[in-house]
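If you are new to this repository, start here. Below is one unmodified record pulled from the training split, so you can see the exact layout before writing a loader.
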Amino acid sequence: MKVFISWSGPQSQRMAESLKSWLRDVIQTVDPFVSSLDIAKGDRGLPVIATQLEHTSFGIVCVTRENSLKPWINFEAGALSKAVGDARVIPCLLDMPVSDLTGPLTQFQVVSSAHKDDVFDMVRALRDHAGLVDLDDDRLRRTFNAFWPDMEADLEAARGMQSNGATVTPPRDPGDILEEVLVIARRQENVLRTIIERVDSPVPMRELRRPQASAADKTDSRREVVDELIADLDVPADRALTYRVITDRIPEELQVGYDTGTIDEENADQICAQIDAFVARRGVHVTIKSADGYQIIAGPGKETVLLAPAVVPGGADGPTTTEGAAEALDAPAAPDTSSAG
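And here is the target side for that same chain:
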């Protein structure tokens, strides 16, 4: 597998050339390209680099304080991301912490060469993209550890080189870093709130179909679990008004609403038995409600509760009493169902 190693400046070049040799020792099937070693004298550099990028499936960018904001290193990183995708481009920092990195390179998953585990994660990502299923983590770790002292020494030598750059990326002020963390956290909170509001809103269901997939192919997505529950109940599926997944316990708690008359005294016991079987198989908490007041609450290791509609003495026009509003048919008292939605 082709690996493009990008560099700019003497320190970065030393790092890139060391990585080229070291990566072939750790994962013998990779073929790293470094322009300082792999472009023959007299060849035009840019066409060769463009050709290499066309056949590259993974990129490593060697970043230093001297080059992190230089146009060439950011140009090559952008070209790599277009060729192989952002997920397969890893900036590897030589002499600066991740928190000091700014500019376009921050869009990628950055690793620090000063941390051995970070470098191992980079090598493991390289293995995964190469599809080396026979090279498990234990074998990879043993090979990595065997050759790591050589790489560590080369990295330390590169850090000790004198920088020729007139300007370098300065250390960031801690206040700036905290402000950036706060901005990112607020953005994530806004995104999460939007997702929760969408998931927590009742969704009208016009048509329900049970997924036709084998057990091996079936996934436990929220919609499929709810659809499976509705399909398992011996009531008309088209009478389900809405369904909702409890957002703070996704996907352990499910709630389904039905039209008036879907559940009654004649079929309630049968539906309870079907829900019990579903709960035992899926290990989820289930609440079933009908528009006219029937409610079934079930969960793993708990006794299933069946609640009847409120009692309206004196006919439909008479006053509604609250004494029978939570009258249980199969339980002595209604439990606290606030956590079920």
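Two things worth knowing about this chain: The radius of gyration is 31 Å. The first strand starts at residue 2 and ends at 6.
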